[in-house]
Amino acid sequence: MTKYRSHRTLFALITLVILLTAGCATVNLDSQVADTPERALELAASERNPVTAQRYLLRMASNFQDQGNHRAARQILRNQQLDMIDSQLTGQKLLLSKASAVELQDSDWANELVGNLSPDHFLGYPSDIMAKAAQLQAETFALNDDQLSAALTLMLLSQTDTQSDPQDTHDQIWQYLRTIPGQALNEASETAIGFEEQGWLELATTLRARDVGLDEQGRLIRAWQNNWPGHPAAQILPTDLRLLSELATSRPERIVLALPLQGSLASAGRAIRDGFLAAYFSDDSADRSKTDIRIVDTSSKPFTALYEELAGQNIDLIVGPLEKDALAGLSSRNTLAVPVLGLNYLPADSRVPDGLYQFGLSAEDEARQIADQLAAQSLRQILVLIPRGEWGDRVEQALLQRMATHNGSVLDIERFFPEDNFRSVTADLLGVTTSRQRAIQVERTIGQNVEFEPRRRQDAEAIVLVAQPNVARQFNPLFAFYFSGDLPVYAPSIVYEGTPDPGRDRDLNRVMFTDIPWVLAEDNPLRTQSEQNLSGTRGQLGRLFAMGADAWQLSKRLPLLRQVEGAAIDGQTGTLTMTPDGAIHRHQLWAQFQNGRPVLAPELSQDPAREATEKTERGESQRL
């Protein structure tokens, strides 16, 4: 009996050992492909050899990256099983991690990955993947907001890699250099070591150090090339700088200014003409011995016929027409034989022929800027007043579209005619009418009068007021009358006549509005000079005068604006940039009515969408 029991006990022990051993059996990871990161981590955890497990996890992370699933790859790469990575696998893990960090724009992860890396770290990779390692390293540095190390990485790559396209590498280096803050760039230039690094940083600091115009920028680039003839960038300039260097000297010499000088648009045409010529004659860089400006009246014949005549002549550029219908007549063409800087915009969804540029005082630009500013101030719930008509339709559409991109909400829009009862319109907008109707319904329900004080809707955070001055002066006091004096009011430039009138504009106190530098900027030499010699430089005609002045500045820079990424002009009508289809957009200034006078509000003049102020400091906006 005792012997039987001992055999049974031994059998049980053997069985237990077999079970425990089976539980620790190693899975053949070479044949395993996990469909989820959790499964990959589970399989790796069952492997007794940590190096084998780590190799498997890196293979799975790479598989997920090949599938475009970088979130799954990140889950594996940041798991604790890879914390104590084998030294032979460190480089592979780092490379995979950079790839997913860049793809996911994970700046915190990027900070961890490159926190202790130097720009030459990629040189430790095999030659066949060195270029890829350098690119990922540069992008990770940039994601960590270290553009200098990103640029230095690619400078080293250009010295060691003979297979990559030097033009692409130089373009990338320049994109990083132009975003480095000025002080950091100067400090780096002072401590630069090596011919390539010194040359690149001198080029960047030279163009950053001076507030220069188009011609001077081109001259500085060419002078740098002469001083550094053996530098790789002197032989193959970054594309943006090559365009600046070449196009700075390539200006249209024969210009036709095509404007309506008779009829209902004659005063607008003359104001634009005067602004164009005033800017031309005050431009010290203009070569008056070569530049020929002809003025043509567009009111005498259809513009399509006029364009056919001009296209057959020796002309470099046509500035005009002003009429929207005349501009639309060009949209049926594939290419314009003579480039046109139209002084208006084509209807939405119109086909834009090659060679057509569009510039004007777009109300849609102002609506978009208002939406951007509301978002910057964290004002999401908005009430809107807009006049009826086609112009108001365009403003409304632009405002709604831009607010949608900021996840803003328009609670109510009231459209009005100038002859409407503005008290009723305001009460409807603010919800006071609804509040009164509810009180009346309560009285009817209970059959007796009740004490009641109307209330405005409580979810609104701001009001957008689109109205001319005589109308806006009536609406603004009504906001306070209907219990909404605490709501900020934003408006486009239409709210201001352009000339200070404290006696009448006190009714606009607290209204914040956007307008062009010509109207709001305190120091403007061209405006001062023009006011002494010309009429029509104030009010609405003054805005058109400024538009004409900017048309001259644009005429010299159209190819640059289109081809140089981030290019901008500080114009009389705002900071001017161009979309890929040739449409010019403006970013204006902000002001607020105080004691009946517009007071510039620099803190509001930053463009939240483009972060223009920061980009200017970092050199991201190439001022032309």
Largest sheet: 7 strands, mixed
Q: Strand content of the residues, in percent?
A: 5-15%
The tally of strands reads 16
Strands side by side in the biggest sheet: 7-6-8-9-10-14-15
Q: Give the overall form.
A: globular
Overall radius of gyration: 33 Å
Measured as a percent range, the helix fraction is: 40-55%
What attributes characterize this protein structure?
624 residues; alpha/beta; seven-stranded mixed beta sheet; 50% helix; globular; disordered N terminus
Secondary-structure map:
Elements: H1 2-23, H2 37-45, H3 50-66, H4 70-77, H5 90-104, H6 107-114, H7 130-143, H8 147-160, H9 166-177, H10 182-190, H11 195-209, H12 214-227, H13 232-235, H14 239-247, E1 254-259, H15 266-281, E2 292-297, H16 303-311, E3 317-319, H17 324-328, E4 335-342, E5 354-358, H18 363-376, E6 381-387, H19 390-405, E7 409-416, H20 422-429, H21 432-446, E8 462-465, H22 469-481, E9 489-491, H23 502-505, E10 512-515, H24 517-520, H25 525-533, H26 539-555, H27 558-563, E11 567-571, E12 574-578, E13 584-587, E14 589-594, E15 597-600, H28 612-618, E16 622-623
Parallel strand pairs: 1-2, 1-3, 3-4, 4-5, 6-7, 6-8, 8-9, 9-10, 11-16
Antiparallel strand pairs: 10-14, 11-12, 12-13, 14-15
